[in-house]
Structures are given as structure tokens and as C-alpha cells.
């Protein structure tokens, strides 16, 4: 068995000592753990089209089918059940945007285009809203700093900030319609508005201080294509009540609001959010991130497409989601309980919410 550094077993669950448990890794890495992550997973890492395509297509079909049933159903119970299924299925489909930011552009021919046509554009969250942005979150010197678009020190903020952070996600479907149907077209004739929309409202980020840099090269072409599709679709949605009434649009918005609420709740527990803006080692970033491994199955619903292994993902960002469970099993078996690796494993959603909430109380 590989020798490794360790942290006290209780450190991953004791909300009173979270920052002290990681202090040793703020300036130096657990090199044994990083070496094990590299050596034990050499045969993994190939994105398999035979898994990606069926997973995305089936999830998307179930999602759109659920929306149709919810709109057409006369029975309230049937409509609610169909809406719930649609929300969960489309949430899973949407989470493939995370995979698109990490897999090599040639790894899955046609998948990026297919996902954008079937999911990204109809949901008004095309892949450009994450590509080129999410990778900053993984940069060694930018994670957890003011330059990180996906980091806020939530555990160090006021207690009321947590429910506000989650509930505001209910407005996301309306916000993306306004963005694509109104702000983007207006930006074509009002350059300052166009610049503001790109810098502040073109990325799926949570840091209000983040400003996106201009797109260049081939990526700029992708942005134009994807944004054109999203704008046409958003305008069509706004005009749809003139032809079919408000019921279909309102039901679809409610379904998507629940999906975005669930994603925001997942985001809330994806990290411990205890960094105060200083650069962190890879190990410290790992311990500030969260795995919710088996045996529980609930995490497969609220953290789909490999996101239940979010800490492991920060160790190996390019590892495809379908290989993360096996990578976790190997590392957990090799490094064992009480190891640094074990320090990022947590029992479940409610435990994590409670921990972060308690941290906000202690930080006042």
C-alpha cells in the first residue's frame, strides 16, 4: 500500500475545525495522493461515445416527453409527476455541459453540436456559457480567488446568504429568456450593452465580480452560432402565447425552475466554500471540494453525470464521468480511511448543507 499523508478522520465531518484540518496543505501538496491518482487510473480516461450519446439522448427524450405530458394532462397528479420526471431528466441532460468543457474537442465527434441543438439552445444555456469559463475554476492559481467565476466564500458569509443563493435560481429560466430574446438583440445596435451582456451575463458563474474576456478565433464563431439559435428560440417562446396560450410556457418555465433550483442546491454543496481568496494547492482545492460516494443512491439524482465525485474531478478534471466511480473505488481502497483522500468524502446532501450553515454562524 502506498504511504500517504493523512488528516484526522473526523476532519471531514467536524464543522468546528474545517479550516485547521486543511492548513497543512495550503502551501504544500500531498504528493503521495496525487501520485496515486495518476498511477492507479492510467487505464481510464477515454470518453466513450457508447455511454455519452445514449445517456444524453434518453435523458433528453424523457425530459421533453415529461413536459409534453405535464402540459397535456388533465389530472393534476399526473401533471405534477410528469413535471418532476421532466425536471430531473432535463437537469441530467443539462449537466453534460460540464463534460463538454473538459473532454477534448475531437473526443466525441458531433456530441457538442448534438447537445447544443437538442439541449443547450432549447434550454438557452448553450455550451459557450460554460466553455472557456469553467476551466478558470480549475486553474492552480485562480481557484477560490476573486478571479474564479465559480467561487464565493459562502461558508464565511452571512447566514441569510445561503437560502438567498439557492432561491434566486428559480428566476434563472426567466433571466435567460430576457437575455437571449431582448438583451442580445438590443446589443447588436447598442455596443455598450453588448459588451456588458458578454462580460456579466454570458457565463454560468456565481461570482458577481467576474468579468468575461472577449471570445476570439474559432470559439467566437461558435458563440455567434449558438447565440443566434438561443435568441431565435427565446423570441419564439415569448411569442408562443399568442398562438397557444400561456399554459405551455408557464408549465415549461416551472419545470426548468425546479431543475435550476436543484442545480443551485448541488452547487451549494459542491465545495465547502471556506477559502478567503488566497491561492491554494491542488490538495487544498481537493479538500475544499466534495465527494458524496456510494452506498447512497440519492446523490446520483441531485449530482448526476459524475458530479457526486466533484472533489475527485478536481484531482483529475479530464476524467470522463463514467470512469469516476471506478477511479474513486481504486483510490479509496488504496489510500484508506483517515487519509487525505478520505477527507473529501461526505455522507450526503443534508449533512453538507448543515455544515456550511453552521460555518456561517461561526464566521459572524
From TrEMBL:
GO terms for cellular component: membrane. It holds the Pfam family FA_desaturase. Keywords: Membrane, Transmembrane, Transmembrane helix. GO terms for molecular function: oxidoreductase activity, acting on paired donors, with oxidation of a pair of donors resulting in the reduction of molecular oxygen to two molecules of water. Residues 1-24 are annotated as: Disordered. GO terms for biological process: lipid biosynthetic process. It comes from the Bacteria. The chain crosses the membrane at residues 62-91, 111-130, 162-190, 232-259. Residues 81-338 form the Fatty acid desaturase domain. PANTHER family: DELTA(5) FATTY ACID DESATURASE C-RELATED, FATTY ACID DESATURASE 2. This is Fatty acid desaturase. It comes from Erythrobacter longus.
